[in-house]
Amino acid sequence: MLNKETEQNQKMEATLRPLLDDAKYNFQLVKVGNIVHNVEYSDELLLKAYNNLSEVIRAIKPDATITDFSLYGSGTIPNECNNCHYGIEEAKVRVFDVDFLHKPHVNKAGLFCFDCHSNKKQHGELIIDKTRCSGCHHSMEEVPCEKCHSTQSDLYAGTLFSDSDAADVMFDEEVSCRDCHQNDDGDITRDVVENCINCHDEEYESTLEEWQTTISTLLHEIETLRKTSAYEINLEDIDWSNYLSVIRDGSKGAHNYELVVKELTDLKTKLQTGP
Ligand code: HEC
Ligand code: HEC
Ligand code: HEC
Ligand code: HEC
Ligand code: HEC
Ligand code: HEC
User: Fold this and answer.
1) Per-residue pLDDT of the chain (275 residues; tens, 9 = 90+)
2) Residues of 24-62 as b/e, b for ≥16 C-beta within 10 angstroms?
3) Is the separation of the CB atoms in 102 and 91 below 8 Å?
4) How far is the CA of 104 from the centre of ligand 2 (A)?
5) C-alpha distances out from residue 221 to 224, 234, 248, 253, 271, Å
């Protein structure tokens, strides 16, 4: 004769078993049927399987913790990106020349997958642009400028071309990126002249202009020599990397005037007289 407990267990199994079978079937369909590329349909099946399994677990062990995927949900289909991309928080990817982690953006900044990705044209397409990265980051302190602007930081510190160059005088005096780049409204800007003359006197307005004119002229001269070198110089013998770094820096000398003048003058001489 069956005791009460066994009877109850049998009853429970009768209701839960179909849920389990159904979940297994849907899971197999996605896995074995290899329909993973129909993301919308796969997601629907996996979501059903997830809900079934949650119900089974809750019935058997009411205090069990069930992974909550709602953080990644959107209300639109496919909404459960994590059904297939579980663990994406740990993935390190490279974007806009920066090492990018998902974790702080999903867990801390509270962004949803679809803030940055879309399924419209192509599954997972990246839709966030550079301006949105800087839009957030230029108004927060947590991530240092160097993380995203390593060329500018290295030039300022004198370590862009080699380990033994001189840092900019202002770097040595601890003038920070923000000291030059932050305006009165607290925004990060490339309009820095106001700040030059906050620290120095009015004449320094023209100092910046002179720096940039000198560097632009040198860059232009080098570009001309590069195209029309009057001497028998094998351009492949020339190391262009520092020249390209100066262009990538974009400040036209402002981040380390002395050093950039020296580098470009050396290069110009090489192009005129041979390496
Ligand atoms: C049914 C499973 C499934 C779901 C649900 C799913 N994906 Fe994917 N996703 C894939 C597969 C499969 C790939 C291709 C993986 C590969 O090539 O290694 C992929 C690739 C991607 C990629 C990389 C694309 C590329 O060009 O490299 C991104 C980004 C992505 N998915 C984002 C998302 C987002 C955001 C969601 C939720 C809106 C989502 N996925 C939901 C299965 C899924
Ligand atoms: C702040 C923006 C942002 C958010 C939020 C975000 N991603 Fe990404 N994701 C990126 C960037 C940037 C890349 C790499 C650029 C690229 O696709 O080439 C990437 C790449 C991926 C890839 C490809 C990984 C690889 O190794 O190539 C997958 C898959 C992915 N994301 C899934 C997701 C999922 C799932 C979510 C939500 C949990 C999510 N992403 C949220 C920005 C974001
Ligand atoms: C909604 C605001 C927001 C947007 C948009 C955003 N981030 Fe972030 N990011 C954060 C927050 C918050 C952190 C965590 C900061 C901390 O450590 O407290 C972070 C951390 C980082 C870090 C340091 C941690 C790491 O991943 O190594 C980098 C680098 C970074 N973000 C790059 C980017 C890039 C590149 C983009 C654009 C594709 C971007 N962020 C878009 C808010 C944002
Ligand atoms: C998470 C990455 C990130 C961090 C951290 C970051 N930036 Fe940026 N910054 C960017 C991106 C991306 C752009 C390019 C935006 C664009 O193309 O419009 C940019 C652009 C700029 C520009 C050019 C602005 C313009 O209008 O053209 C300046 C100047 C700048 N950043 C300075 C800083 C300074 C100073 C800091 C530290 C206080 C800083 N950035 C921190 C990502 C970052
Ligand atoms: C002495 C003042 C000064 C300091 C300090 C300074 N910058 Fe600049 N920065 C400039 C000037 C000037 C420009 C060029 C602006 C222009 O011509 O539009 C510039 C341009 C930039 C740009 C835009 C580059 C481009 O491609 O257009 C970035 C990014 C930048 N600085 C980041 C930084 C970072 C990061 C630091 C700290 C490591 C820093 N700057 C320190 C003066 C400064
Ligand atoms: C936060 C204050 C601050 C800002 C902003 C600043 N400087 Fe300086 N600057 C200094 C300090 C400190 C020194 C080193 C001490 C000295 O020699 O005056 C210095 C040194 C210099 C020097 C070499 C020595 C001299 O006095 O001639 C020049 C040139 C110069 N800065 C130009 C500029 C220009 C151009 C800008 C704007 C693009 C600028 N500075 C922005 C503080 C600043």
Assistant:
1) 567 888 888 888 898 999 999 989 888 888 776 665 677 777 778 888 888 898 999 888 888 887 766 555 443 333 468 778 878 888 889 999 899 999 899 888 888 888 999 888 898 999 999 999 999 999 999 999 999 999 999 999 999 999 999 999 999 999 999 999 999 999 999 999 999 999 999 999 999 999 999 999 999 999 998 887 656 667 777 889 999 999 999 999 999 999 999 999 999 998 888 76
2) eebbebbeeeeeeeebeebbbbbbbbbebbbbbeeeeee
3) yes
4) 12
5) 5, 18, 17, 15, 10
| pTM for the predicted model, two decimal places | 0.84
Ligand 5 centroid to 198 CA: how many Å? 16
Query: How many of the other CB atoms lie within 10 Å of CB of 149?
Result: 20
Atom 33 in ligand 4: residue holding the nearest Cα: 145
Which atom of ligand 6 is nearest to 180's Cα? Answer: 5
Q: Which residues line ligand 1 (CB under 6 A)?
A: 36, 39, 42-43, 78, 80-81, 83-85, 113-114, 117, 119, 123-124
